[in-house]
Design goal:
globular, seven-stranded mixed β-sheet, Rossmann fold, protein biosynthesis, 30% strand, alpha+beta, Elongation Factor Tu (Ef-tu), domain 3, elongation factor, Alpha-Beta Plaits, eight-stranded antiparallel β-sheet, GTP binding, Transl_elong_EFG/EF2, 5 domains
Length: 760
């Protein structure tokens, strides 16, 4: 540490002498062929690394403006208070002038829950965007759903945001969806602050929640605040960075009064501040030097260290409060401004399609060529509404923009900034902003440019659907509206799929769970006035093979004129679970020589892919399959693409049974919470549903049970849980993995499939 400190001192001295000299104009001279602008850029970077601010006149005006922009998402487990928190943020920033509750008795509901269904059910279904101003900071906010069935809304919001607020309940702590949201934040490298909400509730314990953040989410975190009272006694918060007390006063907590810390709280606040400094110094060298030297640490130094550690994803500052009781929200806004990054501090890159998808770092400059990602679509009152995150360049109303995915050039007829379901027309928007455009047809995930570059942004992670329903309109008269609704929802939501059952001819909709599909059925009825007949829910099974099997198939057909001839030889084998490629299907051409001309190989691969789309056990797709082609034969006249495609198709069907296929079913991670007195019946019911208990702990007077349960056995569970716990139990469920079904279940499923096919 001493050697490092000495080295840093020398570096700081050199930088100081270089950067603070008045002879900076001397940089006009070239130095070993390096241009002045290049030297200036490197000196600016060195200044930043040395912890020295760049003089205001050295920074372009757009850069100064961009430093005051924050793009954040608010994410959490269901019922943690995200929408209530966003409502308070909008009130305190002056965007709205009245506070309405999520389940408001006045019938208005929270601003961000603009759908009737959201207000009725008291849950967020669609992510909603808004913007507000806090001091001289411009904050763009996306409020996301907490229910796992709408996880794509969280996924696409985090894909385009620079920072996030992870909201946690002070009683519930880290729950199942908190873990999912944390995983999504890690996937997109999103810096976050945590906000422990509901400190006014009985049983509130923020320190227990912080401990869970460390153990369950493996986060390096510490409180930056200390509550003044808890539960009904909650009055305000002590800021551990500034060492000041802040009391919320006024009818809606709009007046935050700064006071000195009460003498009886000074010792514990000092201890917590030291703990904060110690944890941050573990990941920040500058603070570590001062901490180890026992030098006094100023407010600015601690604030800067927390900001550096947060942006580098090495630390999570933990804020506290109660959104419902109007306490701590303004201090959280200060934390968002102080600790979360501006668009320029986040590394974004695109793929250059003209250079074999070479990575290109985006500067974030409004003067660069336009690069924007369409991350969310909605059918608005005036046509398709496309939400865009601008990474580079400027977009203006009336501009022509190019869809990099399709190559189509389109005009921007209307440009708006969103405030939930309200729109504010704007003439232009620059890099770092989140806006929406009307009249631009595209798909979710498309990239738009000004045409001077051909860049595409990396795609989002889209989870596979786990449940299906057969659905049909109640009468043929509304068939057109029915199709229109399904097409629209499929375009808006990548996890909502529509297909046709080839055997029964039924329309099948697939999604992330019962609630997900129920919401869409209800929306078809409300928004398109179509009554739909819904069949029994179906589980999205998969098939796979368990051993290697050889194939040697000759497809030969002669019917006058040119015939069909194609022979394929090889084997199929399962892809091992630990395989790093993560592919569901893999085709390998291991042939030596030209027994089959190379131009027929793609047709053989197509044939195997088509065959794997429908396994012979129950007609579901085959996964974790590798097909290896080792030999074959062709005919000079009769061989064709069709012949080899059919040869591959029949070869797969011929060897499939020899590979000992099994059926895979979706296994759900289910977390149940119920009073301790009902623990026995709940566990007994899970066992009856063939679930495996993987965790059980006590949370106050409640038992929290975690289990892996087959989705096929979870239908109607909400009713069953309520009845066995006198309405006091609750549960959450999310997809965990696909696993092989027991032999008796497989035999039953195969029999049902054969009967259905026989009667069709």
């Amino acid at each position: 540490m001493a050697a490092r400190r000495a080295a840093r001192g020398v570096l700081r001295g050199v930088l100081s002498s270089l950067l603070h000299r008045e002879a900076v104009p001397a940089l006009n001279y070239s130095c070993h062929g390096v241009s002045r602008s290049k030297l200036f850029y490197e000196f600016s970077s060195a200044r930043g690394m040395a912890g020295l601010a760049q003089p205001a006149q050295e920074r372009e005006p757009w850069r100064q403006a961009m430093e005051k922009v924050r793009n954040i998402g608010i994410s959490a487990h269901i019922d943690s208070g995200k929408t209530t928190l966003t409502e308070r943020v909008l009130f305190y920033t002056g965007r709205i002038h009245e506070i309405h509750e999520v389940r408001g008795k006045d019938g208005v509901g929270a601003k961000m829950d603009s759908m009737d269904l959201e207000r009725e059910k008291g849950i967020t279904i669609q992510s909603a965007a808004t913007h507000c101003t806090w001091g001289d900071y411009q904050v763009n906010i996306i409020d996301t759903p907490g229910h796992v069935d709408f996880t794509i809304e969280v996924e696409r919001a985090l894909r385009v945001l620079d920072g996030a607020v992870l909201v946690l309940c002070s009683v519930g702590g880290v729950q199942s969806q908190s873990i999912t949201v944390d995983r999504q934040m890690r996937r997109y490298n999103v810096p976050r602050v945590a906000f422990i909400n509901k400190l006014d509730r009985s049983g509130a314990d923020p320190w227990k929640v912080i401990d869970q953040l460390k153990k369950k989410l493996k986060l390096n975190c510490a409180a930056v605040q200390y509550p003044i009272g808890l539960e009904t006694e909650l009055q305000g918060l002590v800021d551990l960075v500034q060492m000041k007390a802040f009391i919320s006063k006024g009818a809606h907590g709009e007046n935050v009064v700064e006071e000195e810390i009460a003498p009886e709280m000074l010792q514990i606040a000092t201890e917590k501040r030291r703990e904060l400094i110690e944890i941050v110094s573990e990941v920040d060298e500058e603070l570590a030097e001062k901490f180890l030297s026992d030098e006094p640490i100023s407010v600015d130094e601690l604030e800067a260290a927390i900001r550096r550690a947060t942006i580098s994803l090495q630390f999570v500052p933990v804020f506290m409060g109660s959104a419902f009781k109007n306490k701590g929200v303004q201090l959280l806004l200060d934390g968002v401004s102080n600790f979360l990054p501006c668009p320029l501090e986040v590394s974004n890159h695109a793929l250059d399609q003209n250079k074999n998808e070479e990575k290109v770092n985006l500067s974030g400059s409004p003067n660069a060529p336009l690069v924007a990602l369409a991350f969310k679509l909605e059918e608005g009152r005036f046509g398709q509404l496309t939400y865009l995150r601008l990474y580079d360049g400027t977009i203006r109303r009336g501009d022509y923009i190019v869809n990099s995915t399709t190559g189509r050039k389109v005009k921007v007829p209307r440009l708006v900034r969103m405030h939930a379901d309200d729109m504010e027309d704007i003439q232009q928007a620059g890099a770092g902003e989140i806006v929406a455009v009307f009249g631009v047809e595209c798909a979710s995930g498309d990239t738009f440019t000004d045409g001077s570059v051909k860049y595409t942004m990396t795609s989002m992670n889209v989870p596979e659907p786990v449940m299906s329903l057969a659905i049909a309109p109640s009468s043929k008269d509304v068939g057109q509206q029915f199709s229109k609704a399904l097409n629209r929802f499929q375009k808006e939501d990548p996890t909502f799929r529509v297909s046709l059952d080839p055997d029964s001819g039924e329309t099948i909709i697939s999604g992330m769970g019962e609630l997900h599909l129920d919401i869409y059925v209800e929306r078809i009825k409300r928004e398109y006035k179509v009554d739909a007949i819904v069949g029994k829910p179906q589980v999205n099974f998969r098939e796979t093979i368990t051993q290697r099997a050889e194939f040697d198939y000759l497809h030969r057909k002669q019917s006058g004129g040119q015939g069909q001839y194609g022979r394929v030889v090889g084997y199929v084998e399962p892809i091992e679970e630990g395989d790093l490629s993560g592919k569901k299907f893999e085709f390998k051409n291991m042939m030596i020589g030209q027994a089959i001309p190379s131009n027929f190989i793609p047709s053989i691969e197509k044939g195997f892919i088509e065959a794997a789309n429908s396994g012979s056990l129950i007609g579901h797709p085959v996964e974790n399959l590798r097909v290896v082609l080792t030999d074959g034969a062709s005919h000079q006249v009769d061989s064709s693409d069709l012949a080899f495609k059919l040869a591959a198709l029949y070869a797969f069907r011929d060897c499939y049974q020899k590979a000992r296929p099994v059926i895979l079913e979706p296994i759900m991670l289910v977390e149940m919470k119920a009073p301790m007195e009902f623990q026995g019946p709940v566990i007994g019911d899970i066992n009856r549903r063939k679930g495996i208990i993987v965790g059980s702990e006590q949370d106050g007077d409640d038992a929290v049970i975690t289990a892996h349960v087959p989705l096929n056995n979870m239908f109607g569970y909400s009713t069953g849980l309520r009845s066995m716990t006198q309405g006091k139990g609750e549960f959450t469920m999310e997809y965990h993995q696909h696993a092989a079904v027991p032999q008796d279940v497989q035999a039953q499923l195969v029999k049902e499939f054969q009967n259905k096919r026989g009667s069709a």
